[in-house]
Design a protein that fits this description.
The protein has one domain: TIM Barrel. The protein is an alpha/beta fold. The radius of gyration is 17 Å and the shape is globular. Helix content is about 45%, strand content about 15%. The strands form two sheets. An eight-stranded parallel sheet has the order 1-2-3-4-5-6-7-8. Strands 9-10 form a two-stranded antiparallel sheet. β7, α8 and β8 form a beta-alpha-beta unit. The longest helix has 18 residues. It has ten helices and ten strands. The protein starts with a strand and ends in a 5-residue tail after the last helix.
């Protein structure tokens, strides 16, 4: 069984086709992660309508740039997350971004929102699905202050120093279809042991111009298998067990 632990399912125009494709290659569960305040309720709707989609709610660090009303809407987002605590399997996608968000005036509020999301994860005893692009040091410095069941670093492509820190701390790393062309993602795969790898599509993000979908994680698995020289079936079983540890509520 394959599980996509990081997908923006609410952003597809026709989700039924995406689900059908996924099932055809053996994907049986999809974690749909939050980004915007407006998208949180949509994710809950989709997960209610499709039994293979599981909600993870949070505020993406780029939302600070996209939504000028985010600060005034934060309490509303927190209320949705708290009220959905029995349904959601993680807090995500959350984190910091100093790569796509270059305007430093956004950073203090971005950090405040991230701290709020980490506190919620601690309060609700939920794992986190993290975005760290360009702000790896700050994110890794903040994490030890919170008691969180498990940490997954989504699509890590940052400095090796912090990759090593994450490995030492026992964090998990979810691998995207970018493994087919990204040296940084390949390095992550090679360095992280098989007991701490997960699979994700990050769909509908595009890879070499092609829209990402959960069905693509079958090929991601095959590529990891080649790089790590582990038989595909053995690796699939191991990643399934890893996923059970990090996201127990989807089982």
């Amino acid at each position: 069984m394959l599980i996509d632990i990081h997908c923006h399912a609410n952003l597809y125009l026709v989700i039924d086709e995406i689900i059908k494709e996924a099932k055809n290659v053996g994907v049986e569960k999809i974690v749909s992660v939050g980004m915007s305040v407006l998208g949180l309720e949509r994710i809950l709707e989709i997960s209610n309508a499709h039994n293979m989609i599981y909600p993870a709610l949070g505020i993406h660090p780029e939302e600070i740039k996209m939504n000028k009303k985010i600060e005034s809407q934060l309490d509303y987002a927190i209320a949705i997350i708290r009220n959905s605590k029995e349904k959601i399997c993680a807090i995500g996608e959350i984190g910091l971004d100093h790569h796509f968000v270059k305007e430093k005036e956004f950073y203090p509020l971005q950090k405040k929102i991230f701290e709020t999301m980490l506190s919620l994860a601690q309060e609700l005893e939920l794992p986190v699905n993290l975005h760290t692009k360009g702000a790896e040091k700050i994110v890794f410095d903040m994490l030890p202050s919170y008691k969180i069941p498990n940490v997954n670093i989504h699509w890590y492509s940052g400095p090796e120093e912090f990759l090593n820190t994450g490995i030492d701390r026992g964090y998990y790393f979810s691998i995207t279809p970018a493994i087919s062309y990204s040296p940084a993602v390949k390095k992550t795969v090679i360095k992280v042991d098989k007991e701490h790898l997960l699979l994700e599509s990050d769909g509908p993000v595009k890879y070499s111009g092609k829209i990402g979908t959960p069905a693509m994680i079958r090929e991601v698995l095959n590529t990891i298998s080649k790089f790590k020289e582990i038989p595909v079936e053995e690796l699939e079983n191991q990643i399934y067990e890893n996923t059970k540890k990090v996201f127990p509520k989807i089982f």
